[in-house]
Design a protein that fits this description.
433 residues; Rossmann fold; six-stranded parallel sheet
């Protein structure tokens, strides 16, 4: 029987979080071996292309690449992995796939996009909650209320981002080859992520405030840890590194008479294997993130597989895979998105999380002072993710959702008519009467 055609438009060939998400979704669908998969390569912001060229283990995706859907053709299944405002129904059955949202609201065009599809997949319960609960009062061209409300009307499934257990795992520190000899401290906190737009305390990953609280906690101390930022402002470049160093310098100027702990910027591309070695390096003792909101929070998940402690904000997408009793989960409160971080998708009237200052600084101090107390929780958290949030578990979920929701498609049958001994119309024949 002919397999249903499954066209997927996504940034699978980009160096981006959405690229990684796309590759995992695509690979899981291919491995189900139920569909004829074709891929349309899309860009993702300003992130660079050629991931599949640079990573031989992903080069098989290029064999499925097509320039587009042929005119007049309608795929059996169509999927787009992008932000919902870009969703367009192209196939007989249409699936929108998005990480979702990091705040308490979304633009009305996202709900319109979700409603264009037959069903939608999001990465976390947080994203599903936002998309399910938001509503917009519709108005006519003169700005008058029409009495209609725009809400999501299509099914939403939570498809978590499965960790690659072949790459992200605990390894003995003596097997780690990554060189961090330039860091003199033996106890380091690690942050991984982008330092995005926003004044201090208002960028989405909250990097500025994290650095400031780190300085406040350990200034003028004889014994103190270091903080490693595996970060960029969007690209791993010299300019990105200088921008982050300038931001750190501005924070340091607030403490002109204090002896401050060291902050190291680790900027540049690392392979997945090197990232896992970073997580398992003996100098890296814990990961910290005061994030204001996550659609999922993939680096947090992958770090936990090293079985080390995690300090993290207690709100949004990553709480799907974080067990509060196993990690150091910080309380706080929701606050409006600051104008310095706002954009067309993240508006000032939305809210996101701000960690409690005392809890944040206490977490730095307590983990440094009583590290052994938190080691067992880190190990158990890693086991929890390995058991419940692996790539294989994600693939099972993808297969189950497709089986339950995708309709059967009629197959085109070729008619094989029997040969009949009928006289030719062009050859005269005689019959005796």
């Amino acid at each position: 029987m002919k397999k249903p055609s499954f066209y997927i438009s996504c940034p699978f060939d980009t160096y981006s979080g959405y690229g990684a998400r796309s590759r995992d979704i695509v690979k899981s669908i291919i491995e189900l071996d139920k569909y004829d998969v074709k891929l349309l390569s899309q860009k993702w912001g300003n992130t660079p292309f050629n991931f599949t060229k640079d990573h031989e283990d992903w080069s098989f995706l290029n064999e499925l690449r097509v320039p587009g859907v042929a005119q007049g053709q309608k795929p059996d299944i169509w999927m787009q992995i992008t932000i919902p405002s870009e969703f367009q129904p192209v196939g007989k059955f249409n699936i929108g796939c998005t990480a979702g949202i990091e705040s308490t609201g979304c633009d009305h065009t996202w709900i319109t996009g979700l409603n264009r599809m037959d069903m939608n997949w999001v990465s976390s319960k947080h994203s599903k909650k936002v998309f399910t609960e938001v509503a917009f009062e519709q108005k006519d061209q003169q700005g008058r209320t029409t009495g209609h409300v725009l809400k999501n009307t299509k099914p939403i499934e939570v498809v978590f981002e499965g960790a690659n257990l072949d790459v992200y795992k605990h390894i003995p520190s003596d097997k780690v080859k990554l060189d961090l000899s330039a860091i003199k401290e033996s106890f380091c906190y690690l942050f991984v992520g982008h330092w995005m737009a926003g004044d201090m305390g208002h960028d989405r990953k909250n990097v500025g405030l994290m650095v400031d609280y780190f300085f406040q906690t350990f200034k003028n101390k004889n014994q103190r840890p270091a903080l490693i930022l595996k970060a960029s402002t969007g690209r791993n470049s010299y300019m990105s590194r200088e921008e982050m160093l300038n931001k750190i310098g501005k924070i340091k100027k607030q403490y002109p008479n204090d002896d401050l702990p060291n902050v190291y910027v680790l900027n540049g591309a690392l392979t997945d294997k090197q990232v896992n070695e970073l997580y398992n390096h003996k100098k890296v003792k814990a990961m910290v993130s005061f994030t204001k909101g996550e659609g999922f929070g993939r680096p947090l998940q992958e770090f936990c597989l090293s079985k080390k402690p995690l300090i993290v904000s207690g709100w949004s997408g990553h709480m799907d895979f974080i067990e509060p009793g196993l990690a150091i989960v910080l309380g706080g409160q929701l606050e409006p998105v600051h104008q310095s971080a706002a954009n067309q998708w993240l508006k000032k009237e939305y809210q996101w999380f701000q960690v409690n200052p005392k809890q944040a600084k206490d977490s730095f101090k307590n983990v440094f002072k009583n590290y052994k107390k938190y080691v067992d929780g880190g190990k158990r958290q890693g086991h929890y993710i390995k058991t419940n949030f692996s790539y294989d578990k994600m693939k099972e979920l993808v297969g189950s959702i497709l089986d339950k929701n995708v309709p059967e498609f009629a197959n085109e049958l070729k008619l094989n008519l029997p040969n009949m001994n009928t006289p030719s119309l062009t050859t005269p024949s005689l019959k005796k009467i």
